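Q: I'm a student working through a structural biology exercise. My instructor gave each of us a protein and asked us to get a predicted structure, then write a short paragraph describing it. Mine is Major facilitator superfamily (MFS) profile domain-containing protein. I'm not confident about reading structure output yet, so if you can add a plain explanation after the tokens, that would really help. Here is the sequence I was given:
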Amino acid sequence: MESEPLIAGRGRDQHLGTEEALLSSEILEPTKEALPVAEIASGVYALFVAGLVASTLGLEEYYQLSDKAISIIFLCPPVGFFLAAYFSRALHLKCGRRVAVIVAPICQLTYALTASQAPPFPVLLAALVAVGFFGLMDGSLYAWVGGMKPAKTVIGLLHGAFSVGAASGPFLANTITSAADRPWYTWYYVLTAFVFLELPCLAYSFWQHDVESFHVENGRKTIRDEAEPDEDDEEPRPESSFGYTATWIGSAYVFAFMGVEFTVTGWGIAYMNRVNEGSNLLGGACVSLFHLGLAAGKLSLGVMTRYVPVQLLVTSFLCLALLSQVAFAVSTVPAVSVALMALLGFLLGPLYPSGIIMMTELLPREVQVAGISFVNSMGQIGAAFMPFVFGLISNRFGIEMLVYYVCLQLALIIPLWLCFFRLR
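A: Happy to help. First, here is the predicted structure for Major facilitator superfamily (MFS) profile domain-containing protein. I'll explain a few features afterward.
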């Protein structure tokens, strides 16, 4: 007797989310609805604002923080992401997608309003936990978009918007606070306005995504049909996605990718200052161009995969990223180093959206929200843990180890990416 595999691929004939199921649904339903432009546009704006929130802190001098205290800042948002991942499925089942996408910016608004008042440091840390509840909307949007025909393009657009926000945040914050000669927390008044505008946009565009539509979308009984419960129709629990190998590979993959991204952005300025003898302005330009490169790579994913298979594209880009880091290590010209950092961002851009697309293909539809929310929460752990580890390495061996550390992380991502295709 053959043992049933753990991977989600065993259910290709039963579940939506795989290529075969998507193709068959297109054959059975030749008439497709128009692309939901309002929802996509509000989602793009929400991810842009999330990038602004994630990239602007500026707390070190005001609170006179040590390196140890700064590391605690990185650990707070992942707590919120884990809580969001745990409650995400239940919230969607009871309230629908529209509540999930509204709760997330309310939590961001809580953080922005709190930070604008320059509160005591422990209070600010608690507000940073609230930022992690953006994971409610993050996982919900990606699971929803994964069922669309132009999934690669739309997911690239969404996460590209995050990178644009992350690149714009430090520049806008420094410009506004410097021009007005105001302290760092003045920026959070502006950020509050960005988030406040996000609320009505999301509420209006996703208002019809109630609990009934969520049940129908996932092929489950609606509330009206559940007068006589069926013993065989159990509600999947949030941890039900843990039974799929794709969830764990996706978690490791996103953990490693976010580790690379935040290691580069967190330590890039210090590297340029100490190794290439640049200024804060040059280091800031280096990180901003890295984020813009990420955005360009994500936004062009849909176009590139029309001509190159996604497996070959991402594998090739990872190998080229390794080569770019070798060139970065030997470069002594600051302008060349900045250009190579922008190139690295472009090469890494398609990695995250491609991983999310693989998750939507490998996981059954009914556990995609919980699975992707958990994967994103693991990504936040990587974004906090990997830069922290490099801080310890840098303290011991010097900032010059950054290039080798990034190369090691990239080398670990390649086999994780190839594991996805063993599950298909």
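A: Here are two points you could use in your paragraph. The radius of gyration is 21 Å. The CA atoms of residues 174 and 256 lie 30 Å apart. It's a good idea to check both against the output above yourself.
Q: Great, thank you!
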